[in-house]
Amino acid sequence: MKSLILALLVSPAFVIGQVTMSSTEDFTIGTILRFKACDTNGIAVGLTGPKQTWDYSQLQGSGADITETMVAPGTTPDGKQFPKANLVEKYSDGKYVYVDKEGLYSYMVGFSGNGMLIEYAKPVAFAKRPVSFGGTNSFPFTDKLSGNGANLAGTGMSTIAADGYGTLLLPDKKKYTNVLRVKITQKQKDTSPQGGAVNLTTTVTYVWFDEKHKSALLKINVISSPNYNGKTVEYLLSEEDK
Fold this sequence. Notes:
Elements: H1 2-5, E1 13-15, E2 18-21, E3 32-37, E4 49-55, E5 66-71, E6 87-91, E7 96-101, E8 105-113, E9 116-128, E10 131-132, E11 136-147, E12 150-170, E13 174-191, E14 198-209, E15 218-224, E16 229-240
């Protein structure tokens, strides 16, 4: 789900002591992002608030790099399923995230991959432009999931909260200043129409941005549900606009 792969962007300015990002997730077709997947053992999300230093300089790579390419919906296997999409995030592991990118917001309208298809009749808002330190916005959504023997439908709430700013340290002596951290929380309740079983899932994603990139510099994602609990950590290696 996009909650696993959620990312906002950057372009900060200091206004009355606050940091504001004005172009979150404002990608165009042709943009290519490359991330390093990391070992998650012992990795914490760090503190909230102003003037923080988040030190992740000791992150260790784990597994293959992740490539994310922005493509047109018509070039993807399930593009016709999502007529409202005007951009697709294509991942190197075979996943596709279908996006409706508008002026102030980006919405996830669908997902396909790993034998699953998810449709969002009421789409998930995952990026707001601009976003400022201390700001919080919540958006309801609905979903319908099918594949791999599953058939679920439900509702949820996505909350975007910019909860800290400061300095971010990453491997290879990379140091980023004037960085804004955004916490994205997705809570959803899905029900099986056959047996009525209820599945509650909470996904919390922390993403860090600076003014020079359209991608998150670092992403930490934590998923909690009755059937699955997991964490992923990845940091940006490169960003290229075609």
